[in-house]
Design brief:
This protein has three helices and four strands. The protein is α+β, with helices and mostly antiparallel strands. It has a domain of 112 residues. It has a four-stranded antiparallel β-sheet. It is rod-shaped. It starts with 15 loop residues before the first helix and ends with a helix.
């Protein structure tokens, strides 16, 4: 209408992008940033991530190295026990029970030592006559492992028949 003057009260008008920005900021949970603020990662974040990765990798490598050393040591111990049991089983069978010390190389870096000494019975009087002689047999196997000398020792008690005066070989076997 041409002669009517319009009077409008001042109204706060928000444009659509400005309104959306205010609304999203108010409704956003804490710690979530506007899209324009999180365009990528900074160099500092990359350096921190790589340093954490390097420390983790170092720790894992040390754990694996320790485990491998343990496996190697366990294998060496089991091999030494095998040699010691083998030497002990032969004592009195293939190897005579003679008082003394015998040493020999076993191969693979292992060294064997056999000690045979008379065994004294604490419960028996010294003048007791027994049909056998008792010997303490000690077998020790040693080797070098990571620059240190390692060893395994086994002990056993072996009996050997004693020949009485006047007995022949045939009587002894019966």
């Amino acid at each position: 209408m041409p002669g009517v003057k319009r009077v409008c009260a001042p109204v706060c008008r928000l444009t659509a992008p400005h309104f959306e920005s205010v609304f999203n900021t108010a409704m956003r949970p804490p710690g979530v940033f506007h899209q324009s603020a999180s365009r990528g990662i900074s160099l500092l974040e990359v350096l921190v991530a790589f340093s954490i990765l390097a420390v983790s990798a170092t720790v894992l490598m040390r754990v694996f190295a320790t485990g491998l050393r343990g496996i190697t040591s366990a294998e060496a111990y089991s091999q030494a026990v095998f040699h010691a049991e083998s030497l002990l089983a032969r004592m009195g069978q293939e190897t005579p029970l003679q008082v003394g010390v015998q040493e020999n190389a076993l191969g693979g870096g292992y060294h064997g030592r056999r000690i045979v000494r008379p065994y004294s019975w604490a419960e028996l009087p010294e003048d007791a006559s027994l049909p056998f002689a008792a010997f303490e047999v000690i077998v020790e196997v040693s080797w070098e492992d990571t620059g240190r000398r390692r060893s395994v020792a086994l002990r056993s008690l072996r009996l050997k028949p004693v020949k009485r005066t006047g007995e022949s070989e045939e009587e002894e076997l019966e």
